[in-house]
């Protein structure tokens, strides 16, 4: 996962919190579904998925071009509403 340095610093907290909420939501929904005899659901992702992603993250400074593949380059640009702008 490529991100700005500011997003890099926050993403672990954000994704882990989101995974916990998704787990609790799935548990709540599954209690309702079980009573109704419906198929149970899984959360979209779990803490283990977040942990696997975090080891793959890389911060790229705004304005720095990064080659992802021979055909794909990325470069984060400044936008006033995005975290990490100076």
Write structural notes for this entry.
With 86 residues, the chain is α+β, with helices and mostly antiparallel strands. It has one domain. Helices cover 47% and strands 15% of the residues. The strands form 2 sheets. Strands 1-2 form a two-stranded parallel ribbon. Helix 1 runs antiparallel to helix 2. It is elongated and about 55 Å long. The mean pLDDT is 92.
Key attributes of the depicted protein:
86 residues, two-stranded antiparallel sheet, 15% strand, elongated, alpha+beta, 2 helices, two-stranded parallel sheet
How far the N terminus sits from the C terminus, by CA atoms, comes to 22 Å
Number of domains: 1
- The parts where pLDDT drops under 50 for at least 5 residues are none
- SSE string: EHHEEE
Global outline: elongated
How many separate helices? 2
* Count of DSSP strands: 4
What's the main sheet like?
2 strands, parallel
Mean of residue pLDDT values: 92
Query: Largest sheet, order of strands side by side?
Result: 1-2
Strand content: 15-25%
Structural class: alpha+beta
